[in-house]
Write a structure and sequence with these properties.
By secondary structure, this protein is of the alpha/beta class. The protein contains 11 helices and 14 strands. It comes from Fulvimarina endophytica.
């Protein structure tokens, strides 16, 4: 991480969500007492299944829905009492490709800047378009662009008024793998400019690829917020697979405490262990296998994926 990035991420929070709840007419409680702090310059992924409350939270932060309880501050500005200043700090890229098909790229991005009362500044628009590889498309009508380019235009529109926070709501929903990876590259470039990026997604690999920290939301509750690597360390486990020289009729009785799994072909043993434990038990397991005359030809380890961790967390909340 560069010195610039380090200073940004150690600065005051750019977003502070305190005890936020949202109840719609009819009594549906979409969010329940959510607390969240986002630091300047980080990429934060809000991970959860469809209907978990991700888009509702974005709508509240951006002032598109009214709070039922709690407070939200963007760079120190209350989104309710000081809406205009708070909203000016935010760029929002929605899920839907909502663009004026017959407008040019330059005009539509310039118009978005004007919506926030910012003065005309061709240099800013040029810089934004170049950063998103849109400069050579500036005079093209939006209807002539590919799906990937249209999504880049949406990001350009959100950046036109020079916000400090960029929300990406399911940025790659419904797109193919190639376009998804292209969008990841765009987000990676944005982080280098110092923009704080908050993305919602239900794609595990998206969070794993891009985020500094991950929040997991389920049924309107923020059940966990953690650094990605720390989340893997705390909640992950490893599997040790021992590939045997010859089939094993049964697991030796003196290994019962290790909760080993014998494969269907009886040619491998799998041992799961906690990565945070003071002792993994691997050394004693290998010693006991040797004492029992169990010979092996290979050992393979596998760490839990973020997807497995996520599924486990959500299952625990059911």
């Amino acid at each position: 991480m560069s010195q610039t990035r380090q200073s940004e991420t150690s600065a005051e929070p750019i977003l502070a969500v305190r005890d936020v709840s949202k109840t719609y007419e009819g009594g549906f409680r979409a969010l329940k007492h959510v607390d969240l702090t986002i630091r300047k310059g980080e990429i934060f992924a809000l991970l959860g299944p469809n209907g978990a409350g991700k888009t509702t939270l974005i709508s509240l932060v951006c002032g598109l829905a009214k709070l039922s309880e709690g407070t939200i501050h963007v760079d120190g500005h209350d989104v309710t009492r000081d809406f205009r200043k708070a909203r000016a700090k935010i760029g929002l890229v929605p899920q839907e490709l909502t663009t004026d098909a017959f407008e040019t790229v330059w005009n539509t991005v310039s118009f978005s800047r004007g919506l926030f009362g910012r003065p005309k500044d061709p240099a800013v628009i040029e810089r934004v378009l170049k950063s998103l590889t849109l400069w050579d498309k500036k005079d093209n009508k939006l209807r002539t662009l590919s799906g990937g380019m249209k999504r880049r235009v949406l990001i350009a529109k959100a950046l036109a008024h020079e916000p400090e926070v960029l929300f990406l709501d399911e940025p790659t929903a419904g797109v193919d793998v190639a376009l998804r990876r292209e969008m990841w590259s765009v987000v990676g470039d944005l982080r280098e400019t110092g923009v704080t990026v908050i993305l919602t997604t239900h794609y595990i690999e998206e969070a794993e690829m891009m985020a500094d920290r991950i929040g997991v939301i389920s049924k309107g509750e923020l059940i966990l917020v953690e650094k990605k690597d720390e989340l893997m360390r705390k909640l992950g486990h490893k599997e040790l697979t021992i590939k045997l020289d010859k089939p094993l009729d049964a697991i030796p009785a003196n290994l019962a405490d290790y909760r080993l799994d014998l494969s269907e072909d009886r040619l491998s043993l799998t041992y799961s262990y906690d990565t945070t434990a003071e002792r993994t038990g691997i050394a004693s397991l290998m010693r006991l296998l040797a004492e029992d005359g169990v010979r092996f030809r290979d050992i393979v380890t596998k760490q839990s994926s973020l997807e497995e961790i996520f599924v486990g967390l959500v299952e625990d909340k059911k």
